[in-house]
Amino acid sequence: MTTIEARGLARRFRSGKSDVNAVCGVDLDVAAGEIIGFVGPNGAGKTTTLRMLTTLLRPTSGTAHIAGIDLVRDPAGVRRASGYVAQSGGVDPNARVAEELCLQGRLYRLSRADAVSRATRLLHDFDLNTVRDRQVRTLSGGQRRRMDIAMGLMHSPSVLFLDEPTTGLDPQSRGNVWDHVRALREDAGTTVFLTTHYLDEADALCDRLFVIDHGRIVARGTPDELKRGISGDLVTIEVSGDTDAAKVALAGRPGIHELAVTDRSVRLVVDNGERAVVDVMQALQAHGVGMRSIRLARPTLDDVFLTLTGRSLRDGDA
Ligand SMILES: Nc1ncnc2c1ncn2[C@@H]1O[C@H](COP(=O)(O)OP(=O)(O)OP(=O)(O)O)[C@@H](O)[C@H]1O
């Protein structure tokens, strides 16, 4: 089932005398239970797209449905079906954690009893029980971010939008937030659509990525598909015998784009690394060529990003 569907979604801003086309006709299809990463350099149009999908900003043109509900015709319905966690959560720093969660539930018209029971569940799920009576301003960065996410989940939305959920967190807290995001999908089948500036996060956490640049989607696919789309995988084989014999064994095999022989090793650029490793081992064995080691390397998402946008995400940050 498609949970997020957008067609030709666009937003233009008037800036002085000129127009800024922040988002220029974005199509999105996200299935229920997917974790989607929305990545792009600074100013690419991520936040503007997210603000449209969460009804905070009206599209200039295009349509979108969230959980089957029309964004423009029924924005209140979309807000009931989805949760949004902004970059800086709008929580009162002096409020107490459990009380603030209950208040959020009441804003979504949960009964008092339902709000308490939902808050109790989320405090448990997000490891916040020990800080339930603390003031929000006393929380650590990771606790604070987990609380922001819990706030977005009080009304049990089927879709959760997260704007840079781990920015500024230390590696351990980031890993912890990832675990909680994964658990949302495992336990409740929640669809998660997140923006991130961390390509390792996109790689480790997301099922699929949409790469946006200059307001347009320039690539989409699983992290592996995107990496493969760049240049193929790299297989390096160290042979114990004659490298020329290895070359004869491997030349012209399907899926191998490039074959280079050095002193003791053979270097291949291949379509699909896993498949090629098996194929290469069989071919060498069949030709009686001994092998010391075989190594598979993939282009990183940084390579993908650089190729697609001409910028590294890190440059963008700088
Ligand atoms: N209210 C506005 N008025 C004029 N231009 C705007 C407005 N909001 C955004 N823009 C412009 O639209 C473009 C897209 O901005 P957006 O904030 O969506 O990018 P982003 O991908 O979220 O960037 P970042 O990674 O820096 O948060 C930018 O050129 C930005 O300057």
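^ adenosine-5'-triphosphate complex. The radius of gyration is 24 Å. DSSP finds twelve helices and 14 strands in the chain.
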